Hints:
The protein has one domain (20-163): Lumazine/riboflavin synthase (Rossmann fold). Helices cover 45% and strands 16% of the residues. It contains 5 helices and 4 strands. It has helices spanning 29-45, 64-77, 98-117, 131-137, 148-162; strands at residues 20-25, 53-58, 84-92, 124-128. α2 (64-77) packs parallel to α3. Pathway: Cofactor biosynthesis; riboflavin biosynthesis; riboflavin from 2-hydroxy-3-oxobutyl phosphate and 5-amino-6-(D-ribitylamino)uracil: step 1/2. One of its GO terms (biological process) is riboflavin biosynthetic process. This is 6,7-dimethyl-8-ribityllumazine synthase. Catalyzes the formation of 6,7-dimethyl-8-ribityllumazine by condensation of 5-amino-6-(D-ribitylamino)uracil with 3,4-dihydroxy-2-butanone 4-phosphate. This is the penultimate step in the biosynthesis of riboflavin.
Amino acid sequence: MAVKGLGEVDQKYDGSNLRIGILHARWNKKIIDALVEGAVKRLQEFGVKPENIIVETVPGSFELPYGSKLFVEKQKRLGKPLDAVIPIGVLIKGSTMHFEYICDSTTHQLMKLNFELDIPVIFGVLTCLTEEQAEARAGLIEGKMHNHGEDWGAAAVEMAVKFN
């Protein structure tokens, strides 16, 4: 597999004043848990305080776009706006077209949310052909690949800091 990930960040960003939301699907729990853990780890490495990392769940990846919108709006209503949100999901191809429809609609709607919410919405959805590919991208297969959740955490801090 030739997946390299985010690579080196262009500088060390200070996330100490950020509030970052993570909204994750509950399907494929083992993989999701590892991705969330990777994102949280990287956010904290960039100085985001644990109390400023807000984690919430939705049933599945299809619910991530609308759930992200409601999540961001709720935090704003509470007077605690988010600086970025990381929707995390895992889609694994099965034997029907379901995979293609969910991947396509979820991807497009998450991209649109960046402009609708006016905050970074990081694309944290794995779209894999096999469970092994998903496990590798979650860092669960030693020596195979890194945890992509770490990339998403780094991207959230960079996007929230760099352009504000």
